[in-house]
Design brief:
The chain is α/β, with parallel strands linked by helices. Helices cover about 45% and strands about 15% of the residues. Strands 7-6-8-5-9 form a five-stranded mixed beta sheet, with helices on both faces.
Length: about 325
């Protein structure tokens, strides 16, 4: 009888938790890799900020080129596409809009294996990039040109892998170069890999990724989107508090499966030095203007002018105060 009573006691103690979970509104957020860029999302889940807003946010892995289609098709409610993909989609009339910053002025290192010490050593080698339409493909091409290489003939590009896949590929020798952000770049450098370039040295104020939604969904579910953005803003403010440093690093380590050294380096850059995430988490125009101007100069836009960033962003759902 004591065992039965104990089991019943456990069941009754779990009932409120199960009921609370059933009351949460389930939404899906598409991302393409697990990096420090998703830190606010990791924290919002781990520290209960999503739950406090009545939300359960499911993470869905998606290839960069599929992100906009997933938003338009309704298979996800929130997405973390690259800013270039969003700009090209809006230019073609897609009803998607940026509501928050994923990462602004992302600190990418261009990493090569120990044997490749200079750009000249890259001739005939393979470089991995996320997407041929991504602005960082253009950034890579410009960096190669500025260092004496012809990106059309001197190297080969492999498109598709996110950072997690690039990390495995460069460790395994399948590629000989790629962009890596914290904490992966710090981990590779600690292993003797070489950092041949740092993107902010070449292109300051260039937004990498944004939190985007289907505008029709956002207008129909404004309260849900605001709750998501409030939870994310609360997570950023929590991350900003130095008292939470150790716990924040532990959360990042748990999600990215990388050692304490690279995770600590991520904190030092994202919070101590660069403050990559704005306090309210919301989209800012400066970095998007740089993306639009670059795409316009390349002749890749047909309807968005050089000031077209205003058409691809909307702050009406931002947290107030």
């Amino acid at each position: 009888m004591r065992i039965v009573a104990l089991i019943l006691g456990i069941a009754f103690s779990l009932a409120p938790l199960n009921a609370r979970a059933a009351d949460l509104l389930h939404i899906r957020e598409a991302i393409n890799s697990l990096t420090a860029v998703q830190w606010p999302d990791f924290i919002a889940k781990a520290q209960g900020f999503n739950e406090a807003q009545g939300l359960e946010v499911e993470t869905v892995m998606s290839q960069p080129e599929s992100m906009i289609g997933a938003l338009l098709g309704g298979s996800v409610e929130i997405g973390l596409p690259n800013a270039t993909g969003l700009a090209l989609a809006v230019d073609k009339g897609a009803n998607v809009v940026a509501v928050a910053v994923g990462a602004d002025n992302i600190p990418y290192h261009f990493i090569t294996p120990p044997a490749i010490k200079t750009f000249k050593d890259l001739k005939g080698k393979t470089i991995a990039l996320a997407d041929p339409t991504d602005i960082y493909t253009t950034v890579m091409q410009q960096i190669l040109k500025k260092n004496g290489l012809n990106p059309d003939t001197d190297v080969q590009f492999l498109y598709g892998p996110g950072q997690n896949q690039r990390y495995a590929a460069i460790i395994g020798g399948a590629i000989q170069g790629g962009f890596f952000a914290l904490p992966a770049d710090a981990d590779l450098i600690s292993r003797g890999y070489n950092a041949l370039a740092f993107t902010p040295d070449y292109f300051p104020n260039l937004t990498l990724s944004v939190i985007a939604v289907n505008r029709s969904w956002a207008q129909a579910h404004a309260d849900v989107l605001r709750k998501f953005l409030v939870a994310r803003s609360d997570a950023i403010k929590w991350l900003r508090n130095p008292a939470n440093k150790d716990r924040a690093i532990a959360i990042l380590m748990s999600e990215t499966k990388l050692p304490v050294g690279p995770a600590t380096a991520s904190y030092d850059y994202y919070e101590t030095k660069a403050h990559v995430f704005p306090d309210d988490g919301c989209v800012d125009r400066k970095g998007l203007d740089s993306v639009v101007r670059m795409l316009h100069d390349q002749g890749r836009l047909t309807t968005l002018g050089t000031t077209g960033a205003a058409k691809m962003m909307d702050r009406q759902w931002c947290p107030k105060g």
